[in-house]
What does this fold into?
Amino acid sequence: STAPVPSAEAPWKPLFNGTTLDGWVQLNGTAPFTVADGAIVGTTVVGSPNSFLCTKETFGDFILEYEARLDAPMNSGVQVRSIGDPAVKGGRVHGYQIEIDPSERAWTGGIYDESRRGWLHTLQTQDAARKAFRMGQWNTFRVEAIGTSIRTWLNGLPVANIVDDLTPRGLIGLQVHSIGTDTSKVGQTVRFRNIRIRILP
It folds into this structure.
């Protein structure tokens, strides 16, 4: 007899079809999001607040995988279980963000509570994880949000592990960070591809 398939083997569902932004909507900011070479490309612009390209759907318990690439040292990240409701905080996207942080600090894969409580998991004591991010190359992220647990991996290395019950469900969003008025940072790009989710019961 064949054993039942465990729920962790729920099928992967692509969130990005590789050619269009179907299923996504931009919230906050004016940084453009386009599709090129099978990836979503977010590009920095002057004078915009943080910009987010968000799923129209919300998700509770899931496993999320995606690849991200930076060609210049700009800050970015991916929101999970986040809120972008016009009736809350004036529509400001807020919630858990899986950081892409190419600064010297190198906290990529850490968890930041965007526009709410700030850092929930830094990489201060995690030297191996701090070295895992590869500038100018594709990096593979994995996020497991199950119950009150949120865990992250970067290029196969475990990074963050928090227990937090503030937001059990919400949207997924791709961030282009504000560059304020710094014209030297205009036109920097972050790329995302192979964005897929396994929805858990």
Summary: The mean pLDDT is 96.
